[in-house]
């Protein structure tokens, strides 16, 4: 579904991704782990197409198409969803208006019929209830005055409604208490399906206790330096990143930060 | 600025500093200011200024003790229209006014308010300035706190494209007797294009010693991160920009009911964004 080959990218002339190669098949959940500054968020922004993140080499193919040639909203309509590490507050635009506009923009760009008001409201109510978020909050401005956990749950509500083909979740577990982590994990698990892929970007093993990944990759110095099964995450939790950094020829953990 | 000057104003006159004097100068000799007046305890105002000529009125409004004035003033003239409206409003003790100004049409649009507040009166004013091309649009207020315990809130938002000039000149005068005055002015401008200009000029003149007078002003551009967030959810860039521009003026139009004026304003914002 997603094939990243030898991808390099920079921000303000500084190289962050440096020859990253990764392939995620339909129905799979892959976890990307790595120390601070290793390029995890940059990878998610490059895949979503944020301005300022310049691709300097390599390619990304998503469902047979050149993802990098598409504008951010086209990527979304094609089925890419990015759950942000820091969801943005938008005063003056209600959650419901935002979501309905997004859903219908995606549908019309795919040549599908727009959702009626009633259909949308019904789906929004179910999605909010699944995430344990008071529906009243759906009427408020996007993320404004939301706690860290509420913002993350709101991202999951958006994901559930937009039903992407590829979900990239950037540190969706950060800022969550134990109960919220379970609610969010359940939400991610509910979305697992044979025609959907998920990329979980995380610092910690704890999300992976709830969402069992098929593959775990270690991102350091802007590339994948090690891949393995779920046991790799446990090994990292026990040993830290230093051993892998040395093995990858990065002299110390600080060099691992690109 | 109580009355419009008889002679063509100059830039030395603070209240006319950012005005389109070139346009005004060409038509000034033909000036025939109209006068209207309204008085009562429960007044509504629904002024919609249209056409392509010069609308030039002095409207005198007197709201009785404990009374109310609610309404909308919408300047939606055609491309060559000129508006120089002055609303002189007196709020008697305990009276309140809830007003929304929309200043979006014409070549030069000036909505001026001169409001006197007596004891315990309340003014809640929202103003939206939405302009493009070479329009000059102004909201000019002179709020006079004459008696104690009066409250005034002014919330003005401007969205400007092209080489448009949008100005908010807000003068608050607190008389010696007007203790416990609570006056607030907030102005924010969103510039869509490099050539657009916003002017903010809050002015305080305070003679009482126990008052609260706050003012804030900011000028900025569309938030790039917010735009990316919208686009990452599948909303095309122009639609995202229009939504954000509409959200920007939201604080200024909270009193504006659903209806033609609101719909026209939101449509104007969307077209301003897509024209770029």
What does this structure look like?
- The complex is a heterodimer of chains A (258) and B (276).
- Chain A is α/β, with parallel strands linked by helices and 258 residues long.
- Chain A has a domain at 2-89 and 165-256: Rossmann fold, CATH 3.40.50.
- In chain A, 38% of the residues lie in helices and 28% in strands.
- Chain A has helices at 40-48, 72-78, 95-109, 117-130, 148-162, 178-191, 206-210, 230-239, 242-247, 253-256; strands at 2-11, 14-24, 29-33, 53-62, 65-66, 80-83, 90-94, 141-142, 166-170, 197-202, 215-220, 223-228.
- In chain A, the strands form three sheets. Chain A has a six-stranded mixed beta sheet with strand order 6-9-10-3-11-12, sandwiched between helices. In chain A, strands 2-1-4-5 form a four-stranded antiparallel beta sheet. In chain A, strands 7-8 form a two-stranded antiparallel ribbon.
- The mean pLDDT of chain A is 92.
- With 276 residues, chain B is of the alpha/beta class.
- Chain B has four helices and 13 strands.
- In chain B, strands 1, 2, 3, 4, 5, 6, 7, 8, 9, 10, 11, 12 and 13 form a 13-stranded parallel beta sheet that branches.
- The radius of gyration of chain B is 19 Å and the shape is globular.
- Chain B starts with 20 loop residues before the first helix and ends with a helix.
- Chain A: Belongs to the ABC transporter superfamily. Ycf16 family.
- Chain A: Residues 2-246 form the ABC transporter domain.
- Chain A: Keywords: ATP-binding, Nucleotide-binding.
- Chain A: InterPro entries: AAA+_ATPase, ABC_transporter-like_ATP-bd, ABC_transporter-like_CS, FeS-cluster_ATPase_SufC, P-loop_NTPase.
- Chain A: GO terms for molecular function: ATP binding; ATP hydrolysis activity.
């Amino acid at each position: 579904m997603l094939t990243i080959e030898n991808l390099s990218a920079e921000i303000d002339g500084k190289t962050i991704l440096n020859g990253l190669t990764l392939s995620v098949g339909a129905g799979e959940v892959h976890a990307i782990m790595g120390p601070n500054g290793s390029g995890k968020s940059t990878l998610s922004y490059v895949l979503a197409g944020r301005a300022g993140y310049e691709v300097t080499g390599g390619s990304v193919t998503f469902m047979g198409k050149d993802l990098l040639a598409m504008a951010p909203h086209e990527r979304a309509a094609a089925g890419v969803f990015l759950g942000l590490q820091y969801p943005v507050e938008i005063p003056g635009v209600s959650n419901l208006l935002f979501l309905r506009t997004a859903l219908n923009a995606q549908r019309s760009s795919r040549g599908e019929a727009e959702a009626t008001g009633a259909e949308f409201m019904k789906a929004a109510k179910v999605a909010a209830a699944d995430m344990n978020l008071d529906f009243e909050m759906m009427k408020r401005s996007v993320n404004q005055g939301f706690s860290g956990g509420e913002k993350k749950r709101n991202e999951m509500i958006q994901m559930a409604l937009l039903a992407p083909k590829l979900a990239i979740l950037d540190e969706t577990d950060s800022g969550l208490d134990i109960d919220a982590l379970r609610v969010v994990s359940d939400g991610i698990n509910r979305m697992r399906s044979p025609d959907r892929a998920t990329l979980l970007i995380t610092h910690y093993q704890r999300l992976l206790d709830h969402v069992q990944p098929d593959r775990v990759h270690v991102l350091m110095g802007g590339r994948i330096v090690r891949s393995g099964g779920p046991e790799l995450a446990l090994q990292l939790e026990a040993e830290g990143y230093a051993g892998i950094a040395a093995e990858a020829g990065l002299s110390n953990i600080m060099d691992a930060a690109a | 600025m109580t009355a419009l000057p008889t002679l063509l104003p100059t830039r030395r006159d603070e209240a006319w500093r950012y005005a389109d004097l070139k346009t005004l100068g060409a038509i000034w000799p033909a000036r025939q200011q109209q006068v209207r007046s309204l008085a009562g305890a429960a007044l509504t105002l629904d002024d919609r200024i249209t056409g392509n000529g010069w609308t030039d009125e002095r409207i005198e409004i007197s709201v009785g003790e404990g009374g109310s004035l609610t309404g909308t003033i919408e300047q939606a003239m055609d491309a060559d229209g000129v508006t120089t409206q002055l609303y002189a409003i007196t709020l008697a003790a305990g009276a309140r006014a809830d007003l929304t100004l929309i200043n979006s049409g014409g070549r030069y649009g000036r909505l001026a308010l001169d409001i006197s507040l007596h004891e315990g009166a309340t003014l809640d004013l929202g103003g939206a300035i939405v302009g493009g091309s070479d329009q000059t649009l102004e909201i000019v207020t002179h709020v006079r706190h004459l008696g104690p315990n009066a409250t005034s809130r002014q919330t003005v938002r401007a969205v400007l494209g092209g080489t448009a000039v949008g100005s908010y000149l807000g003068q608050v005068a607190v008389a010696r007797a007007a203790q416990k005055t609570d006056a607030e002015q907030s102005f924010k401008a969103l510039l869509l294009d490099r050539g657009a200009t916003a002017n903010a000029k809050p002015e305080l003149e305070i003679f009482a010693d126990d008052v609260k007078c706050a003012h804030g002003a900011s000028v900025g551009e569309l938030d790039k991160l917010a735009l990316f967030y919208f686009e990452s959810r599948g909303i095309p860039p122009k639609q995202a920009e229009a939504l954000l521009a509409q959200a920007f003026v939201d604080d200024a139009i909270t009193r504006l009911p659903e209806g033609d004026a609101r719909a026209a304003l939101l449509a104007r914002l969307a077209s301003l964004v897509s024209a770029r």
